Amino acid sequence: MKLQLVKQAAGELPDFLKGLNPEQLKAAATTEGPLLIIAGAGSGKTRVVTFRIAYLLDKGIAPYNILALTFTNKAAHEMKERIATMVGDSTSSKVWAGTFHSIFARILRSEAEHLGYSPSFSIYDSDDSLSIVRAVMNTLGVSQQQVPPQGVRSRISSAKNQMIGWQRYAAEAGNILEKQTGQIYEEYEKRLRLNNAMDFDDLLINIINLFRNFPEILKKYQDRFRYIHVDEYQDTNRAQYMAIKMLAAGQHGNLCVVGDDAQSIYKWRGADIRNILDFQNDYPDAAVVRLEQNYRSTKTILSAADDVIGNNRKQLAKKLWTDNPQGAKISVLPARDDREEADMILKAVRSEMNENFLAPKDFAILYRTNAQSQALEDSLRRAAVPYTIVGGVSFYKRKEVKDTVAYLRLLVNPNDSESLLRVINEPPRGIGATSIQHIRTFADERNISLFEAFAHANEITTIQKRAAVAAQTFTQMVQRFIDIKDDIPPTELAVSFMEATGLLRMLKDENTEESLDRWNNVQRLLSNIAEMTAREENPSLEAFLQQIALVSDTDEADTTKNRVALMTMHAAKGLEFPVVFIAGMEQGLFPMGRAENNAEETEEERRLFYVGITRARQKLYLSHAERRFRFGELVFSQPSRFVGEIRQELLEVKAGTMSFQQRQAPPKQQVDFKAPRQPFFDEIPKDDFISQVPPKQPKLRVGIKVKHAQFGVGTVQGLSGEGSKAQAVVYFPTFGKKHLMLEYAKLQVMG
DNA sequence: ATCCGTGAGCTTTTT
DNA sequence: GCTCACGGAT
Asked: Which of A108, A211, A358, A609 fits as disulfide partner to A218, beta carbons 3.0 to 4.6 Å?
């Protein structure tokens, strides 16, 4: 009966939908009204959503009537690409597909004036917002020693995600800490406003404010977005939930959400799993489709995932199954320490490559924290196995890149005082903290922006003439570029502006390996602008800045290259690999220490493990170390309880130097912390070690070559003073003559 | 203003 | 083990 219905429907459906299974087909073809797709790991979720959109287009729905919201740029790109292969580039590119933040930023930019922002508002990332919190704390006289700024920032952010403004936050503040946070919150918000800037949270909140206060604008977007898709719905927070609800409340309101409650791993960032659990309450007439057939993994891997997630309580009913073969058992690799763990993984990679004809790109090594990548990298590098780190320290977080971005922001948004302060002494312009303080007071008194105050520095009696001249010279330089901003192409503008700032010159003149690296990074950013100019229809510096504010390195990871991928399990969501390693399966690390005694957090960690397991198609390895370096200290730990949640017959322990059984049975000899420690790694013989300690005072003479940490190699030209007053005059080819205090400057005598 | 050493905090995870 | 703010010294 049901099958017949499907068949009937299928008769009218375009051919390309025929490759779908009945559930997938239902999900793709139910285009009207609210729809909840509960999509288990590896059940073809992305495929279904892209087919659904292709189907809508095929039915004649205009591409700009379709909205698809994702969490990462990567997911959005992938979706667009897949749609493009089905309907062509020109149609696909008109579909509104992007991250919450980028789509909302785009809308906000065209509606900015309604909310009192200018369209060229700056977008602050979490580092920027942290430094504003710090600055605010300084002006309010709150000690950063007593109140960690990081904590303040996260309290503010989580308040914003729950749409609690500073007024309400302050009113409801119970303890001193909250009252203090409330004050900082207020000042923080005011400063962002003055700077014509939004943080990530504002991009969501301001959309809601816009829709709330301007019904006609809301209606415009409700009419535009007739078909709304939300990916990873389980990860939406309160604000995202509200925004979606408002958009879908219009006369069209065809809302399709896709998610898997078992893969909710962003609670810490404000994700509210209730949003998906309660979808059917919010939309009583919602259709529900469960995608339960897994096309990705072996039976073994799926059973393990099932064993693990079964220990969580709150779940939507679903049962994943697969037609795939049973597959190999899951290997457990017990190691003595993190280095041995890395070596065991390396060994396994090599033998898998040889035995199963796999290439580096078929492997992923996943871990809980980025810090774990170090040992793994070392191992792979030594063995010359090509690898790539996904995520990690972002290109856009490097100082010189942030400085360049700040310069460019200043160009499009001179009100952006944070950016001004960031770059004012980069290169040094002789405007010190005291002068800046006075200029700031001047700005506050006249209620003008810091930039304007800088421009009128000559009227400020409290600062030195030299500083005033420097301040004005700087603003005049920036102003010259602001004046021609719209008359010349963005790339040309950016390049000549950056030349004029002196930043490039400074880096070049420093002429060290690091500074040339930095110079290159600035150039790379500039060439990104050129790239965008070539790609976009009407390129602008504003658009470029908005775009880079919202991309992460995870999005840029080049998976096309044939390399072993290293990343956190969070970064791995949505990906799949034939062979997956999960490293660091230890109590205190995974689950994290703080989660161990907290049921909810343990459940979230468990979901993260579930995500990790289900990335694997054919083979899964779990490794753990008995001890590892954390915070520069050797830490001992037990194997993770999560490993024990997988039924024994699915596991196979690869004996390392010690067998798993030995450590699982209560060891006869508990590790005695007072006992002399086992030699760790290849211990350095004592004599060698001592000989490496440099003598307290290097024996310097005139004419000898020395090495300085910053200036490099130079020649000693003179010596003076004794004991703590001892000084040397050293000539460095690239830096010239330097007077150095021997007590501080650690000079190495060159052999 | 700039350079250096010190000590605290950091490691969850990201748009 | 690393990074960053801070303080002391020049």
From this structure: A211
What amino acid positions of A are annotated as catalytic residues? Answer: 45-46, 231-232, 263, 615
**What is residue A274's three-state secondary structure?**
helix
Tell me whether residue A510 is exposed, middle or buried, using C-beta atoms within 10 angstroms of its C-beta: 0 to 12, 13 to 18, 19 or more: middle
Least confident segment among A537-541, A702-706, A737-741: A737-741
DSSP for residue A490 = H
CA distance linking residue A12 with residue A30, whole number of Å: 13
What is the value of pTM for the model shown? 0.79
What per-residue confidence (pLDDT) applies to A525? 87
Q: Which of A662, A671, A587 is nearest to A368 (CA)?
A: A587
Q: What is the pLDDT of residue A663?
A: 36
Under DSSP, the state recorded for A425 is: T
Q: Per residue in A443-485, pLDDT tens?
A: 888 888 889 999 998 888 888 888 888 889 899 999 999 999 8
From A56, A66, A52, select the one nearest A94 (Cα to Cα). Answer: A66
Q: Give chain B positions with protein CB within 7 A.
A: 1-5, 8-15
Checking if the pLDDT of A240 tops 50, the result is yes
Interatomic distance A525 CA / C8 C1' (Å): 38
Residue A329: predicted pLDDT: 95
Distance in angstroms (rounded) separating the CA atoms of residues A614 and A407 = 44
**Looking at the predicted structure, is the pLDDT value of residue A678 above 60?**
no
Nucleotide nearest to A134 (CA to C1'): C5
As a whole number of angstroms, the distance between CA A42 and CA A699 comes to: 66
Contact A468, A460 (CB under 8 A): yes
Chain C positions with an atom below 7 A of a protein C-beta are 1-2, 5-6, 10
Nucleotide C1's nearest residue (CA vs C1') is A632
Per-residue pLDDT at A740: 53
A269 touches strand B (CB under 7 A): yes
What are the beta bridge partners of residue A291? Answer: A39
Nearest nucleotide, CA A267 to C1': B13
A92 close to A84: Cβ distance less than 8 angstroms:
yes
* Sign of the CA dihedral with A201 first, then A202, A203, and A205 last: positive
